[in-house]
Records
---
Amino acid sequence: MIPGSTIITGITPDKTKTLSVLTIMQYTVSRSGNCTLINEKVDLNQEHQYYEGIQYPGYIQPSLLKRDIDIYAYRMKTDLVVQGFARSEKKAQSLIVKLQCQGDKVNFFHDIKVQGDRVIEKGFRGHQISDPEFFTEMPMRYDKAYGGTDEYAEKKLAAPEDLSWMKAVVGEYEDREISEYSYPRNPSGKGYCVDSENLEGLSLPNLEFINDQLSVDQLVLPLNQWDQRPYPASFDWFPHAWFPRVAFFGDFPETDHGSVPKIEVQKGILAKNLLQQELIDRPKHGFSQGAHPFLWQHRLNGNETIHISHMSVDGRDFLLRLPNQRPIIKGRFASKKRKKLYPELDLVFIETDKKLLTLLWRASTLIKDNQLRIDFEKQCEYDVYLQ
């Protein structure tokens, strides 16, 4: 049996109960992109892990998710997460990091423009964006992407008694995570501005999707037009309290059109009629998707090739071929009859600096209400084999 397996109960989007075996496998990635299975014990991650030591200039200090838990009973698609640094072999003002995934049934890519530090300057013709500073490496994290909090606007426009009340309700720790004047898709980033008086000297994002870059006329928008701002660019884990992930379990800031933001509807992330549904009736399974919203749009098979430019330790391209090593689960699951289960790939997690690949597989079987005892694990016995 491969170390790193567990069995949990769950429910599908159509409210069918399941037993699911989760199996985690880790591989080292060679320079040529080949993956070698690590034959040491690997445990499923059951606690959220966060980056440490990141400091922001103001009161708001958002937590950045470094590793999500593995023990979700159902993912609708495969989470693809890439963690590391963009690097250049020599000093550069900008470069393009391109992630491409190709396989029998998928072929997609996302391009991120990485630039050195920039700010808004006051010129003869008004506000303008400064030239990027030179850099050799850049963290591919959300604190370097578009977003942030306009604390200047909050101090100017928000009622002090409302701020004090909110702090008393949620506590100081939670109060520093996000504000009404934060960008709901990424309170940790740079460039978010609500009040034009705060423009000069404003830090701008280092990471932008190449087809969604910030322009001068896009810098200042009303608070209720947050959904019309650029999408934060990164391949890292997407925190639970950010939109759209939070929308599966909670409310989110109003828009000027009173509807669900268009891009999340177009991507199939949120239903167009979501706001007409009671909170308890909203679909919940999308919350389990921990990748960037653009990177859980496909179901991968485990035999794809993934190519990421400029994200190896020396600034060259990072290549890997998923090992095409699907586990098979055989056993008894709350019944006397043995069966064979064929898992789906729920997670592809690539840590480029560590040259490490983590795959999480989920094999599920349907169950009836009267099949399980409280100690259902004792009713089940199974083995995991490699195909």
Note: DSSP finds three helices and 23 strands in the chain.
---
Amino acid sequence: MENKFYKEMKKELELLKKNGRYKKLRFLKSPLSGHAKLEEFDDVIIMCSNNYLGLANKPEIIEAGIKALKKYGTGAASVRFICGTFDIHRKLEERVADFLQTEACLTYMSCMDANMAVIPTLLDEGDGLVSDELNHASIIDGCRLVKKGIEKRIYNHRDLSSLEKKLKELKGCKNILVVTDGVFSMEGDIAPLSGIIKLTKRYEALIMVDDSHGIGVLGKTGRGTIEYYDLMGKIDIITGTFGKALGGAGGGFVAAKKEIRDMLIQNSRFSLFSNSIPPVLAAIGIASIDYLESDPELVVSLRKKIKHLRNKLKENNIKPLEGESAIIPIIVGETSIAIKIAQEMLQNEVYVTGFGFPVVPEGEARIRLQVSDALSYEDIDKAVDKISKVFSVLSVKGKIPN
């Protein structure tokens, strides 16, 4: 007799399929670049990757990983404070700190781990925490992990008046931490960091920025949202990833003052009870930063392609959300419609992803296009042509939420 737990789960999964909300994993059969071979669909144009600078398949970066794998092996089979730290970890952390102009850095298996590590480690009873309502799930989960006795507030998305109201409510707290994404992953918009930092100074709060989608994309030299606002060296805590623009392989980090790094080493559960990143990922991260610094024109090239894609969409009467990042969302309404569009696009040799509830609010399902410098202008034009045709067939134009 089948356990009732599995019966209920099967019903729930069948309902998702019936409603057109079922997510299906797609399997790549080749390295990821502007194109890739996808199981069942062969060669497709990749419009859904965080590979913003096109570094995921660069021969120089692959070679750096191979050399590290041969030198260090697969890893130390342990957490860092026992025997899991290699000298290449220190080199990577020093490289990130130098790149982002912070005193120190500590790496984690992912930026999700980094966000869930730093927030509960730094805050204690009597402290306050303020978070943007559209922050990434990893920030939300990090906020959920804080101890009892910490006052938590959520402010309206990118709304400085709302943020100040919440800061006033927390004026009696010992310490206050304001947390925001640099670039919001589902909206593609940018946090108003200049205004946020003025408020954090006024209310003696710390500021933490997850710049996973900003680094490699924004700023004159690709140093992200902080450079975009000319705030290098002025942000208390920066978290980020090597799983997007910086190589695309994986790993995350916290860049901050030395005292914060030291406290994370002492008390962060995601460091104390989880292995260090494999040396091969550390080498890929170093090589990716080196590559970006040696060729800042990559960032210029990427921005031109972002602008080109936005213009082409508008020429075809498709209205994406406004923004300057490499994330270009098109709101289509219902989750089932977003998933249907993504399926149809694959039939047209373009790989996009439909996002719906619970990833985004009900009724604001979207197709999220992402630009990589690995794409040619011909790729972009072809993708927009296919998107336009699919939208026309499905009577979708893209719409701006109220």
Note: The CA atoms of residues 188 and 327 lie 5 Å apart.
